[in-house]
């Protein structure tokens, strides 16, 4: 009876340890992704400050509308930065590569099913972190919009996310569309890289 109770206790603590480990891993991945997006925005902000802001100021002095210029820069910068982050985040993930290689050797392996399981295991984390990074901009845009003539540094920092906010005239829906854009790019990147890894495994 005592042995049975001890086994139950051991199993309980083993499962609890695994659950805690998984929770720490999720929080760590979310935190790293969040910081990565902040760095991406910081890079875009730096490029804007060094090159685009001067052009915007010149056009404003001439009485020109600068919304097209700023929003054009916004969507291009967002797509480029998100593509780079997605590519680096997945292509350099050796744990995922080993997991795919191991799974592909099992009988009945189907890539489509494995791809869907990738979303369930950790694929959702990158879009979630991106959405969380945009949350401070949602109430700001809802209350103040974007003032092209003399905007704050805070709003300039969120220029990569501006395009869809201006398109929808909503901070909330704009940030949702930004997240959907990342999810689509992230999904394409994961699928393409998995196919490359599978081809490389077959060749070797």
Description:
The chain is an all-alpha fold. The protein contains 9 helices and no strands. The protein is elongated and about 80 Å long.
Overall, the morphology is elongated
SSE pattern, N- to C-terminal = HHHHHHHHH
Broad structural category = mainly alpha
Distance between the termini: 53 Å
Major sheet details: none
- What is the overall number of helices? 9
Helix content: over 70%
Low-confidence region ranges? none
Cα radius of gyration in angstroms: 22 Å
**Proportion of residues in β-strands:** under 5%
Topology, number of strands: 0
What distinguishing features does this structure have?
single chain; 204 residues; mainly alpha; 9 helices; elongated
Write the layout of secondary structure elements.
Blueprint: H1 2-61, H2 67-91, H3 94-104, H4 111-123, H5 125-134, H6 137-144, H7 153-157, H8 162-168, H9 171-203
Can you describe this structure in just a few lines?
By secondary structure, this protein is mainly alpha-helical.
């Amino acid at each position: 009876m005592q042995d049975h109770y001890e086994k139950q206790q051991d199993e309980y603590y083993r499962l609890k340890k695994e659950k805690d480990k998984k929770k720490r891993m999720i929080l760590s991945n979310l935190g790293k992704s969040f910081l990565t997006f902040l760095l991406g925005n910081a890079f875009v902000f730096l490029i804007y400050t060094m090159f685009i802001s001067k052009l915007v100021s010149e056009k404003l002095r001439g009485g020109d509308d600068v919304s097209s210029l700023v929003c054009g820069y916004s969507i291009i910068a967002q797509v480029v930065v998100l593509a780079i982050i997605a590519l680096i985040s997945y292509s350099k993930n050796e744990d995922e590569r080993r997991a795919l290689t191991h799974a592909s050797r099992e009988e009945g392996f189907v890539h489509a099913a494995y791809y869907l399981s990738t979303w369930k295991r950790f694929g959702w984390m990158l879009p979630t972190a991106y959405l969380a990074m945009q949350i401070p901009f949602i109430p700001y845009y809802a209350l103040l919009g974007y003032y092209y003539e003399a905007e704050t540094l805070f709003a300039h920092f969120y220029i990569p996310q501006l395009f869809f906010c201006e398109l929808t005239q909503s901070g909330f829906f704009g940030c949702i569309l930004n997240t959907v854009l990342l999810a689509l790019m992230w999904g394409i990147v994961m699928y393409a890289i998995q196919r490359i890894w599978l081809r490389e495994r077959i060749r070797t």
